[in-house]
Design goal:
About 65% of the residues lie in helices and about 0% in strands.
Length: about 140
Amino acid sequence: MMRVTRSRRLTTEEAAEYRAVREQIEQEKPEITARIRRQLAERRREEAGRAGIPSLGQRLRSAREARGLSQVTLAAEARISQGYLSQLEQDEREPTLSIAARLAMALAMSLDDLAAGVGLSAPDSPAGRRARARLPTAPA
């Protein structure tokens, strides 16, 4: 994006109007962001429904619940915030590949299984055991 520069200084009135517009934008930004996230979440769920598969958020929640983990516990194991995990489960956000991999490891399943929705109720599957073995151990 190209930065717009001015060839002259703003008048006092122009500067006041500019500040007022910036303040209004800052006040409305959280509401606009929330509305966009809700719309994206709905679109993701609709696309998954048309394909006949659960959305990534639904797969994350199913895997977490199948293992009896709370959001707080899973978030801590995956080194993400509980709020971010909640947004992922509600399909308001999409994880980066590294975060998805950490979630898969914390859920003791392969990233492929999480992405495809395979093995959601089998925490002791071979792929899950391999993923769990790759988890870093906490320092004593």
